UniProtKB/TrEMBL annotation, chain A:
Protein name (Swiss-Prot/TrEMBL): Response regulator receiver domain-containing protein
From TrEMBL, chain B:
Domain Quercetin 2,3-dioxygenase C-terminal cupin, residue spans: 161-247
Organism: Flavobacterium erciyesense
Gene3D superfamilies, sorted: Jelly Rolls
Domain Pirin N-terminal: 23-133
The protein, known as: Pirin family protein
Domain of life: Bacteria
InterPro entries attached to this UniProt entry: Pirin (IPR012093), Pirin_N_dom (IPR003829), Quercetinase_C (IPR041602), RmlC-like_jellyroll (IPR014710), RmlC_Cupin_sf (IPR011051)
CDD domains: cupin_Yhhw_N (cd02910)
UniProt family annotation: Belongs to the pirin family.
SUPFAM superfamilies assigned: RmlC-like cupins
Length: 99, 251
């Protein structure tokens, strides 16, 4: 079964590590996480992703530029704001994005 | 707010959603028993995602000496309201506090925080509400706020416990939200006026029975009401307690 590929971008390292760990606990989901936009763009250009989760600390203009880049590169990919920084809402956000 | 002993007029054009207590999600982890009004963690229900910007309403009971270890949050306004017992809180902003009935705690998680919450007591459960509100501004500097309120000020009236304004009574958060709590004698009626046009109100019954508009509610029932300027509630049992959460209906 094909796994759901998720890219997480956020500026807080410990939250990033937590989110990646939580996602990778699920059998059918796999995640990569990056702190910087340039890293995100490089990974995005190299792999196919189903979902991008935008985490904390991303400024409005940075988010606009990221969304524009992702939408051009992989129009099918869903871009979702992640709220809460942990387990509470993560599953809901991913399941909703997959609908 | 106005208290009366006669039936107030009722706006019948409101919209509403009723969540009976027994339809909530339930998780029992042994040390933690939690009822989820909205989808949270392993409880997923497409019909129960939020009420406006109110995203989480967890009704938690934590065993003696147990608790939530250090864990992160970001971009969320997190409100804790203890109902019984003592809850010890520590966070990455350097706060170590104990909150109990009458206290209200608010955290703006913003760019990221870590915190832990434990039952302070070895001989008593701690029961508290954990409420998450989507913020109206992302990536704010994390902050912590806590107040102790006089429980006498909510007898037969609604006491404000949260607002968007640092100068107002209660804690404040980054959202156009107002929370009120009240404890009523049987038969006492109250009206609540919406503070900001377009907002809705989620009514959560903490104890006893109420009639809100023309809808009967029992302990731990939740009722969301919108498209109205005011609502009326009447206590149907002695010592009935309620929490009203006025929130924007759109993020």
């Amino acid at each position: 079964m094909k796994k759901v590929n998720i890219l997480y971008i956020g500026r807080h390292l410990e939250i990033l590590q937590t989110v990646i760990r939580l996602i990778n606990k699920q059998d059918n989901w796999q995640a990569q996480g990056v702190l910087k936009d340039e890293e995100a763009k490089a990974i995005f250009a190299a792999y196919n992703f189903d979902i991008v989760l935008l985490g904390c600390g991303i400024l409005e203009e940075e988010e606009t530029a990221l969304r524009s880049f992702f939408e051009k590169q992989q129009p099918h990919c869903r871009i979702v704001q992640h709220y809460g920084g942990g387990s509470g809402l993560l599953t809901s956000e991913i399941l909703l994005a997959l609908e | 707010m106005e208290n009366t002993n006669t039936a107030p007029s009722i706006d019948t054009n409101f919209k509403h959603v009723l969540h009976k207590a027994e339809t909530r999600g339930h998780a029992n982890h042994g040390w933690l028993e939690s009822y989820h009004t909205f989808s949270f963690a392993n409880y997923q229900n497409r019909e129960r995602m939020n009420f406006g910007v109110l995203r989480v309403l967890n009704d938690d009971r934590v065993n003696q000496g147990m608790g939530f270890g250090k864990h992160p949050h970001d971009n969320m306004e997190i409100i804790s309201i203890p109902l019984e017992g003592d809850l010890e809180h520590q966070d990455s902003m350097g706060n170590t506090t104990v909150i109990r009935e009458g206290d209200v705690q608010a955290m703006s998680a913003g760019t990221g925080i870590f915190h832990s919450e434990y039952n302070k007591n070895q001989d008593q459960l701690v029961k508290f509400l954990q409420i998450w509100i989507y913020p109206n501004k992302k990536n704010v500097t994390p902050r912590y706020d806590q107040v102790t309120l006089d429980l006498n000020d909510r007898h037969n009236k609604l006491q404000q416990v949260l607002s968007p304004n640092p100068e107002d009574e209660g804690v404040w958060i980054h959202q156009d939200a107002w929370f009120h709590m009240g404890k009523f004698d049987a038969g006492v009626a109250t009206q609540y006026q919406i503070k900001k046009p377009g907002n809705g109100v989620y009514i959560f019954v903490l104890k006893g029975d109420f009639t809100v508009q023309n809808i009967n509610l029992n302990q731990r029932d939740g009722l969301g009401i919108w498209d109205t300027d005011s609502l009326s509630l009447t206590a149907n049992s002695e010592g009935a307690e309620v929490l009203l959460m006025e929130v924007p209906m759109q993020l």
